[in-house]
Amino acid sequence: MQRVCFLLKVRPERLAEYRERHQDVWPEMREALSRTGWHNYSLFLRDDGLLVGYLETDDFEAAKKAMAETEVNARWQAEMAPFFEDLDGRPDEGMTPLTEVFHLD
Predict the structure, then answer these.
(1) Of 36, 53, 72, 96, which is least surrounded by CB within 10 A?
(2) 98-102 own/partner pairs: CB under 8 Å, 24+ apart
(3) What parts of the sequence cross the membrane (predicted)?
């Protein structure tokens, strides 16, 4: 299982709304994530807007590709894009994995 961690930056003026939107993620979005191989997926948000994402998957590139092909993901990404700073394109295209340097099992 591949562990993936990535960072994004939420605009400070949109933090409250971003948190609110993630209290009720669309059921079809949740189902699509599970179906396309996104497991144990979590988002952590710091008060300054730093967003840390973590997920486990068999193949991150395949999971991203499969998710990008869903209609619900296109709608979700279009709605989420305005929340982020320094992003060229969709949020899911800006997720550059960090290099894992240590893991305690």
Answers:
(1) 96
(2) 98/5, 98/6, 98/7, 100/3, 100/5
(3) none
What 8-state DSSP symbol labels residue 42?
A: E
pLDDT in tens, 40-98: 999 999 999 999 999 999 999 999 999 999 999 999 999 999 999 988 778 888 888 99
What stretches of 1-105 show up as alpha helix (H) in DSSP? 15-21, 27-35, 60-68, 71-80
Paired tokens of 10: 């939420």
- pTM, two decimals, is 0.91
CA–CA–CA angle 9, 77, 3 (5° rounding): 65
Catalytic residues: 22
